């Protein structure tokens, strides 16, 4: 498949909204990013419409078309019939603006729709098939080619209005190039798949931006030609409104929206019978509600009335080509998607925390309808186990509970009214609380001094302190924090009673040791003084004796 729908990786925010809305689940998540599985995608554009981060983008061929205009061949615009609901002007106004940009002119794709509906009428009148499905919508064609290949023989093998109109333009202008403009993503892929029919495609937004760049303002005018019946094509049932429906043996029905189309195809696959022609459109409300319509709010009644009021009662006067010129081949597109064995599915369910059927909530948060579908997607490499919100929440809660219940530190959580919300086992032990439920909802003052909590609330700053809880005979280090986001005050308590008592015991020993040392010093000083006194007396007596001996010797 061509790369016409791309993902802007930096914008993807893991919301899984695209996979929830993707009807064929053709989106793979890996590394926190969404990836479009092109082989499975039907280019319905749903992911582009629902993405809240604008992470999907459609390839813009504006520069390619500008290069075409610089060449010698004339270039014509083929305007999808829904253009009148998008621009609120007629084809003459678009033509005038297109000529200013350098185009040879602009025509209505509804001309090609007239060619197509005539072939539908011929096939219905021939009555060769019991069930026929229109082939105007390329997304429906891709849906059948990829996901319902066994029903490919029910798909009418006629070109789309876009292709039929391009063939008609090139019949009248052999050297011309054709650029289709419409509200559809899939048409870009159709143009690329069937080469040499449509040369480039633009969205309504692409063309509007181009007009704005060149300062071109569309004139508010519409023609009222009666030969324009096929202008009603982009509405729900629009194809059938243009057909003759002259075969009384055939019934006619309209199915729009991919989910409804899939339900109808399932019904046909499993025995739906009857001569019926089914108009199928991937967009709910058909093309007037295409994914690239330039609108932010849907106005289905206003848009329908605008399209219906622009359509006439007769067919466009267009030359019908030979059938072989507008015959279209549809090949089966093999997805090569193998369903994993049951044992692997069950093993994956267990990894997701789904051990029994009651664990399979089938909440759809991951984007899949059931936990089983999610497990299959995991095995196919399209999803990650972590995409399961209940599983991740339970895992996070279990992890938090393990820490909350087993940490040696006490934890108390109170709300902004200072009412106790949570109390872990360590806090219960510190505060001599028998059961946490006994104090849930009570004011914190029933357990602790409320001032630190009030200070944390008022200042929005952490409060640290070490306090002696006389009632519990404990020394506790408290850290009180306020979380503005959740409106909660958290108190972390560390019982330091043993450490405090050990410090007190050491302090007492230090004081006792100091006292003993002082006493020893005093005693030693007394001894020294006594010894000094004795030594002093002895020294005086010795001096007297020696003096007398000296004098005695001198006299002799």
TrEMBL record:
The keyword Iron-sulfur applies. One of its GO terms (biological process) is regulation of DNA-templated transcription. Pfam families: Fe_hyd_lg_C (PF02906), Fer4_10 (PF13237), FeS (PF04060), PAS (PF00989). Residues 3-31, 32-61 form the 4Fe-4S ferredoxin-type domain. Keywords: 4Fe-4S, Iron, Iron-sulfur, Metal-binding. Residues 344-405 form the 4Fe-4S domain. InterPro entries: 4Fe-4S_dom, 4Fe4S_Fe-S-bd, 4Fe4S_Fe_S_CS, Cytosolic_Fe-S_CAF, Fe_hydrogenase, Fe_hydrogenase_lsu_C, PAS, PAS-like_dom_sf. Transmembrane segments: none annotated. One of its GO terms (molecular function) is metal ion binding. It comes from the Bacteria. PANTHER family: NITRATE, FORMATE, IRON DEHYDROGENASE. This is PAS domain-containing protein. It comes from Baileyella intestinalis.
